[in-house]
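Q: Can someone sanity-check these two? First one:
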Amino acid sequence: MELKLPREGAAFCTQDCFKASWTSHKSVHLKAKLSAPGTGENSSLVSEGWRYCIKKGQARTPKLPHFDWTGTLRPYPISSKLTVPAHIELPDWALDGTPKVEPNSDLQHVVEIKTPDQIERMRETCRIARQVLDAAARMIRPGVTTDEIDRVVHEATITAGGYPSPLNYHFFPKSCCTSVNEVICHGIPDSRKLEDGDIVNIDVTVYYKGVHGDLNETYFVGNVDEASRQLVQCTYECLEKAISIVKPGVRFREIGEVINRHATMSGFSVVKSYCGHGIGELFHCAPNIPHYSRNKAVGVMKVGQTFTIEPMINAGVWRDRMWPDGWTAVTADGKCSAQFEHTLLVTETGVEVLTARLPSSPKVYPWLNA
């Protein structure tokens, strides 16, 4: 019986090689297997208790889940959940993964006008969130894992006296979201090392003094190609242009028109599945802020409202797919995606960016230094 192995130019060895030198040649196959995704270094991590995340964070598996991956990125095993000291004030999902107040609140339908006390607490919390994100940004370089970035976010948040809002929110297993390359949003920090040429978004939310502050930025890892640079800069500009129209009396639906116009003129597309949101004592509430054109967002901006704008812009098509972990949204065509986010306050004269960059923030965007 002859084994039907492929011949020249194939990924496998020839029939003669198989017959004559299997005992020595199998070591070559072993090396190839160990370097494949989901094996090698990942195998040793699995033996140390790291696992792949599945079922929206409610389960783990030692094997890479089967999926029709859209790009080159793959999930890697994740570490166990980090702990929070007893003195930290907890949101109501921290212990069991289920928000209690948020889903049934009237503020899912009515846009809250914040009191002066709420606004002051939000200013403080948003400033902490900015400092936490800046600490994470300083970590970014080839060879660093997103798990290491998550640990910095976790520890910086706790040091400031806050709780990392994503941790155990609907069972999300980590303290921030790290979205690499084709990941649109909600990427789970894992054991994959960042590589030269990647782009990575870090999304931080801090819960402090009873309110949340939410922001994210997309960063370059090492030397990034021109296409990725243009995508990230366009996304940054989309957010800036959207913020520039925020003032009392403007319709929420206008935000999507501004973002869509700039993105499409630059040759990019706008994600439709995920939106900006109201924020305050609740992590997510009204208003809903779509980033695409011809949306049906209800309402107009009023003094004292707080909400996020967080456009997700894709290099290719706007459609998304969900990974088996139930959280990680990726582009349907495997092309890169970028995002930026701020928490905003509508004021008498326009807008206050509560999560604005500080003088101490890392200088990572060339267009800001020009």
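And here is the second, same format, sequence then tokens:
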Amino acid sequence: MARFGLVLAMALCLTISVFPDTTTAHLRHNVYGKSCPNVEAIVRKVVQQKVKETFVTIPATLRLFFHDCFVNGCDASVMIQSTPNNKAEKDHPDNVSLAGDGFDVVIKAKKALDAIPSCKNKVSCADILALATRDVIVAAKGPSYPVELGRLDGFVSTAASVNGNLPGPNDNVDKLNKLFAKNKLTQEDMIALSAAHTLGFAHCGKVANRIYSFNRTHSVDPTLNKAYVKELQAACPKKVDPRIAINMDPVTPRTFDNVYFKNLQQGKGLFTSDQVLYTDRRSRPTVDAWAKSSPAFNAAFTKAMTKLGRVGVKVGRNGNIRRDCGAFN
């Protein structure tokens, strides 16, 4: 996961933080009950088909949702394509590694919905992404949860607005807590959402410093499991293409589960920002508790995902429903 220029973007962020409840009050579970009653089944069918085509759809969609919500809120602004006059969010260095399959599943779901006359241009891209995210978690054997709906698509998407708003692989607990608190998320929410790293992959370039040049005293991060270091060095030898992919979870990389926390207990967190959740005494008790109890973790994760889906929601004149998820109307 990589990490909301200018006066307009800053104003939007201020609005989000000062008036958090006026927008979330518009979210509910049956927004499309009359206009598009089968919206969830339609999106789910598209997701299931896409997952059959490629597993990457699962981590790609989950990561896309997180990156969207943490930059100016859950408004599908990360979907916008850049133009000659505007470099959009998706082309910021922190977002260029977002896999295309996440974008593709939203676009395909939008097409499927628009093929039904009563649903055409009735469901926002932001809501489609929120639904698809829940559905990919379920596809990976994770928990299901009711998705609040009623988001509109945003009017702004700039690469500059991404700066400083997404977690970095070397962040410590203080930095992570501060970043999540900006979005009304607690330390417990942060730990739960970090466990999305139980799925998918990262690139060798993001972990090279931990296994070859950690600091002046240690070439290898001493918090890393020694056997795991050898695995990582074999997968990411020196001078390898930094774009080579490695699993985030070395044990169950295709299953959404609490093994992520068990890995942290054993020194097998891929990023520094993962392992610090265990080495920091403030977060370790939560890691230990969720390593023991899958139900407790699942409950915390679904609660955190619901709260994440409320971040910076656009309603009324602050948004619309895009005809094309990749372009403003």
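A (reply): Looked at the second one. The beta strands are 201-203, 245-247. Residues 269 and 275 are 5 Å apart (CA to CA).
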